[in-house]
Recover the amino acids of this structure.
């Protein structure tokens, strides 16, 4: 009996030591959702600093304010300029509210968000991208707070629509980008073109693209993907999903016309895709001057300023197609997890961050366009070179993003890669139609 | 240790049972917490509709039966097609990588094991070096090497060959070869739909040009690792056996195939098994090379599981794909074990030959008494 007790003590000792050790090694990895509950005292004792990302930690840093506490914010940052600007903004808010907000720039936002939610420890506030929004909203991840904001009506309607799920406006858009036609002005003059030649319709676009094409340079370039090709479909008057969101309309003569138009540019040799030009995306090809015109958004400004400061360029609105003007709008909103404990604080922070004044500060720091009409108007005056991007929002549409659309779009993008080498446009649309309808049915049923 | 554990029922050491448990407890707990429980949870998730919100057990997740498995295996649709394409890609990846890396590793091991080779240490280190380098770093370097205007194409250009745009070329290499042979369109007998919603024509596409770059990468990085295993195996073959083979009049080639290779069979089994598992689980290179691009020809089941879980929030489907992958690996490993088994009832000729060789070995091993290495246990 004596030895029996003996080994029990030993056993207990080992278990405690082991749990402490596990806690030390395992807490960084939040993907294993099982080490919690009764062992918490020993884990926290063993690992003082690992709680830094938790809301519970850091109570000593808030400086004794009554409303004190700390929050974490997860952002998909374009670089130091954006991270620093966001940190400065939340610090300014923190001085009023007494809450410390830690801004974490994600390496892979989608993955880290998924990890946070599945581990039961999502960030208190985060960037929610347009393409993931419907998936997140339909799975009940998001808190629908946007209607409570005092500036809820100030946002562009297209942005409100993007972040509306099932009739509810969920989260406040933080900024937006549209696509414009970016033109290398040196190449433009070299080809003997003037301001009058700026393309306003598809035929003129084909003409100037041909005029700008040389042995070492393509007239026009853009990524071979739905986010660009879709613009041509909309310009032709086509859509992918019917107004009521129940029927796929991908297989239409308008969409076919758009694909055939793009194909004709490829055949004429005036359109080359970035991968063919040895570039990762349109902006890179434009910077390396292997493309004279690209279809990109305002993010190209930062990329060119950093990597290719010698390239002279201007941005104009996209030419209109047979169905009128159209461009895509891409946007992020400030997401708050459903049922979050810090919900009210986070909503207050969003209110602060989306004020016209603060949004214009962000514009200055890293070039995004404010999401409210009033602030965007000021922006267009301050940055006339980007006026075309702002103007685009008057007729922009959001790319399809219903839950489950991402897979279909990925498949469409994959089929487009064969398209450059002479794929059949009709086959691509037929496949897209079938996949889209199946995904729509699944989304509407669920 | 084994001698301590043996008399555990009674006698002087009757109280050692609890201590046995005590000493194995750390391992049991670590394996339980980090392996067994997560695997059990994952099995549950693969049969549930858990969407990643809240805990997978006791939350809102409901049991949905085999729906997740059916989506990727039987129900016509995009999910099944994606899975089919991923399986095809990975199958070609395995078929090209595993034999090549094994052959290259064995070749390198035999070379650096030669006594006449000068600077053996240098070559061993050099060949092993890619294995200790981070696969992320190597992949990024390869992305540049195989770029449209990268080094590889530069060299090909110098040889007056126009290189493909490697990582952007979705064409299957078998399709390209068939194209050279004059097969332009899809032959009618291959146009029909094959398994998993992928047409037979797509099944026979072979690895895409982009995938061949990744295959090269895998062979480059892992050959060194397996070279080390073969080297250990080669050094366990005693000098006496080689001498015996020499006395029997075996030339270097005959010696390699009749003595060295059979004695390396346990190592070969290890190398093939490890290679098979690693190649079916390929993920990091895919993640870095663009997540399936171009045209899904580098999509693999492991990446598909990741995508379904983290981007589609269909954790059940992701877990289901993982378990199907697990099943594939287990079945293939079992198959490989069966192929490489010691044939009791094998063909008579090979048995006779093996018998002769064994005799020779026995003679060789007993003559220089006390000199045996004891490491050649191939049976």
């Amino acid at each position: 009996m004596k030895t029996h007790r003996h080994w029990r003590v030993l056993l207990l000792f080992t278990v405690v030591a082991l749990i402490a050790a596990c806690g030390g090694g395992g807490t960084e990895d939040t993907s294993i959702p099982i080490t919690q509950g009764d062992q918490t005292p020993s884990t926290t004792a063993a690992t003082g600093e690992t709680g830094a990302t938790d809301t519970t930690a850091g109570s000593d840093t808030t400086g004794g304010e009554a409303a004190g506490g700390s929050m974490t914010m997860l952002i998909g940052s374009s670089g130091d300029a954006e991270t620093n600007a966001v940190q400065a903004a939340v610090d300014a808010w923190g001085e009023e509210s007494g809450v410390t907000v830690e801004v974490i720039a994600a390496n892979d936002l989608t993955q880290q968000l998924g990890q946070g939610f599945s581990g039961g420890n999502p960030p208190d506030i985060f960037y929610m991208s347009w393409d993931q929004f419907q998936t997140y909203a339909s799975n009940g991840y998001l808190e629908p707070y946007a209607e409570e904001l005092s500036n809820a009506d100030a946002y562009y309607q297209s942005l409100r629509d993007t972040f509306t799920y099932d009739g509810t406006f969920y989260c406040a858009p933080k900024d937006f980008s549209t696509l414009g036609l970016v033109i290398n002005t040196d190449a433009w003059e070299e080809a003997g073109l003037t301001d009058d030649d700026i393309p306003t319709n598809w035929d003129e676009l084909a003409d100037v693209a041909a005029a700008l094409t040389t042995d070492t340079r393509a007239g026009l370039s853009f990524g071979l993907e739905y986010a660009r090709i879709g613009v041509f479909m909309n310009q032709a008057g086509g859509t992918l999903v019917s107004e009521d969101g129940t029927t796929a309309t991908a297989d239409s003569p308008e969409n076919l016309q758009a694909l055939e138009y793009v194909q004709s540019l490829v055949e004429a040799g005036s359109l080359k895709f970035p991968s063919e030009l040895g570039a990762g995306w349109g902006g890179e090809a434009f910077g390396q001057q292997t493309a004279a015109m690209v279809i990109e958004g305002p993010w190209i400004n930062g990329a060119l300023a950093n990597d290719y400061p010698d390239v002279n360029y201007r941005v104009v609105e996209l030419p209109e197609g047979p169905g009128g003007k159209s461009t895509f709008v891409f946007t992020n909103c400030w997401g708050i997890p459903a049922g979050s404990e810090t919900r009210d604080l986070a909503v207050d922070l969003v209110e602060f961050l989306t004020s016209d004044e603060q949004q214009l500060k962000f514009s200055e720091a890293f070039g995004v366009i404010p999401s409210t009409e009033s602030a965007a108007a000021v922006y267009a005056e301050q940055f006339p070179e980007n006026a075309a991007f702002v103007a685009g929002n008057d007729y922009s549409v959001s790319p399809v993003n219903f839950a489950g659309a991402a897979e279909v779009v990925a498949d469409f993008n994959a089929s487009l890669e064969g398209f450059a080498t002479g794929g059949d446009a009709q086959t691509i649309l037929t496949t897209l139609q079938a996949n889209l309808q199946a995904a729509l049915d699944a989304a509407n049923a669920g | 240790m084994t001698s301590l554990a043996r008399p555990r029922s009674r006698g002087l050491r009757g109280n050692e049972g609890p201590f046995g448990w005590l000493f194995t407890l750390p391992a049991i707990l670590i394996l339980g917490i980090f392996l067994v429980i997560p695997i059990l949870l994952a099995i549950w998730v693969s049969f549930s509709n858990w969407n990643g919100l809240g805990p997978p057990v006791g939350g809102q997740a409901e049991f949905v039966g085999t729906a997740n498995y059916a989506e990727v295996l039987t129900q016509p649709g995009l999910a099944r097609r994606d899975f089919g394409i991923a399986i095809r890609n990975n199958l070609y990846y395995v078929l090209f990588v595993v034999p090549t890396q094994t052959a290259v590793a064995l070749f390198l091991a035999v070379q650096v094991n030669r006594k006449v080779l000068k600077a053996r240490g240098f070559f061993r280190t050099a060949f092993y070096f890619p294995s200790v380098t981070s696969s992320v770093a190597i992949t990024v370097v390869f992305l540049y090497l195989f770029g449209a205007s990268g080094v590889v194409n530069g060299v090909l250009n110098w040889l007056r060959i126009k290189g493909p745009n490697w990582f952007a070329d979705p064409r299957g290499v078998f399709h390209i070869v068939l194209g050279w042979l004059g097969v332009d369109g899809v032959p009618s007998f291959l146009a029909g739909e094959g398994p998993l919603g992928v047409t037979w024509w797509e099944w026979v596409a072979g690895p895409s040009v982009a995938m061949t770059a990744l295959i090269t990468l895998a062979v480059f990085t892992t050959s060194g690792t397996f070279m080390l295993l073969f080297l250990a195996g080669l050094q366990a073959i005693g000098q006496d056996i080689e001498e015996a083979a020499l006395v029997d009049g075996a030339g270097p080639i005959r010696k390699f195939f009749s003595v060295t290779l059979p004695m390396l069979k346990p190592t070969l089994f290890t190398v093939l098994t490890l290679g098979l598992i690693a190649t079916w689980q390929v993920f990091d290179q895919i993640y870095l090379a663009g997540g399936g691009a171009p045209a899904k020809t580098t999509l693999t089941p492991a990446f598909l599981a990741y995508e379904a879980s983290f981007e589609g929030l269909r954790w059940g489907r992701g877990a289901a794909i993982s378990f199907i992958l697990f099943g594939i690996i287990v079945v293939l490993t079992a198959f490989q074990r069966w192929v490489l088994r010691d044939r009791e009832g094998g063909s008579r000729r090979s048995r006779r030959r093996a018998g002769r060789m064994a005799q020779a070995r026995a003679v060789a091993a007993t003559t220089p008494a006390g000199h045996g290495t004891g490491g050649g246990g191939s049976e």
About this structure: Chain B touches chain A through 41 residues (CB under 8 Å).
